[in-house]
């Protein structure tokens, strides 16, 4: 218990410092970006040059740095993290090089002003931190290892937004098929401590007066919304469901296009900096404030967008000549000759494809914040429409309550992120971010409706990337009754060792298979007393034993133990024979000797299934325990093996045939 508290405090403190440092550096970078743009006012050509060059340098630096240091740092890391938590070992992902590349590359990307986010990247960083520095002495058990890594995920969102409750729930929804309740308190403790330190650092740096919500709102609490507004909130949820599914589809199509073997993609692969540079150039050109950017609030940076979209003003009621006091950066949404509706619509459309494309650049990036802003813009658009339809507000109990477009923006942000990530906890994150729980009911309604629509149309953004990258992740099994058993999908020709196996047989097995673990049986044959599973042996253990058996050190030891009076198949001191021939003859003789299994570490209880284990139970066990394979036995006899690959392939084939059934027989219910 004492060790638990210590390493959780260290994890929370470390990740809070990392998150705050990244925010501080990227904020200073954005300040320099806006300062250059302001200082060059009056010279449009130089303004444009500075506006597009600054982010291009940062993005190309991030891409090059990650490519040279650790290509595994590219992207959000959530698809790979889900696979690792599934029990699959992915090399070079939880390393110090990946940590450094992710931190520096992500800081440069955030400081460029491009629509990329850091939120889910903190999942990955906290997991690396936990794996490298804190976890090894705590729990060497492989099942406990993946179990405790979920705590690292929970800290990620907590130290990014200062939202420990939503952070823990979001990490569970995104990364875990099954979550051990015993880790609940660990996740909440580490996330709360990390969020506290993160906000204290903001106060210490005078970014905030006291510890408050990151995007604090001031909606009225006595009557935040009327029940007559619920249909509008439902429309936001359903619309965000369709839009979120389309975002996932668009993002996947861009990734697939870049992976397609065409002349263009081969050229971009050889010249890695051209693609991120071109994407940044196009986006920066379109958002240039004196140009097209003036019609889509292009001068606002991501956090400024959120703060302005959540404000308490109704923009449609503000005249183009006089702005009310306190409007601040929200004035960027108001244009003297263009309607607010047009600006919001243009912003949403342009940022939609910009976000979908920018998250495919070979840099550390996440889609949570860009999608969050998209949802806020869409919700704000609906809110301004409602304020126009009901200019005097809604009458209730003799009192007229005006529409709050900012509340619609909060609901839209939660619904859109929920639709893209297939999570419900975004509602909790939103009310922690804004510091108000007044809109939690309509927010939950919108998020649930968005999830219902999106889950029926597309996988989540992270599952979509898993499919594109073909990561060994076991997908969810659709509900239904399957009359299928392990014996229908298992591999029957199993490679194994017996207690009588020779070193020659062991050498053949090591040379012709890539199995990480090899089953051990009592004896091979067809008798009733043969093929009884005794356990399994790690490949590394067998390789070490075999290498020692034919090693020069052992050969020298055997030579020293040989006495001149004894007859031996190999005469070590015969100078009439060629030395290499003697070694070869000795090795041949040694290969025919049996392997001493008593000198090898054997796992006496490998995971086993019986032939009639159902597909549903097999899928559940593989997902729950993070299994890579299981041996199939019949009355103790080894009859087959089923690996993660077989379960995945069968699941995909099952889905294909179900789709073909519906296509060929529309109207028939399976």
TrEMBL record:
Coiled coil: none annotated. The keyword Transmembrane applies. Keywords: CBS domain, Chloride, Chloride channel, Ion channel, Ion transport, Membrane, Repeat, Transmembrane, Transmembrane helix, Transport, Voltage-gated channel. The lineage of its organism: Eukaryota, Metazoa, Chordata, Craniata, Vertebrata. It holds the Pfam family Voltage_CLC. The chain crosses the membrane at residues 6-27, 48-74, 120-136, 148-172, 184-204, 230-252, 273-292, 333-354, 366-390, 621-643, 649-669. This is Chloride channel, voltage-sensitive 1b. It comes from Scophthalmus maximus (Turbot). GO terms for cellular component: chloride channel complex; plasma membrane.
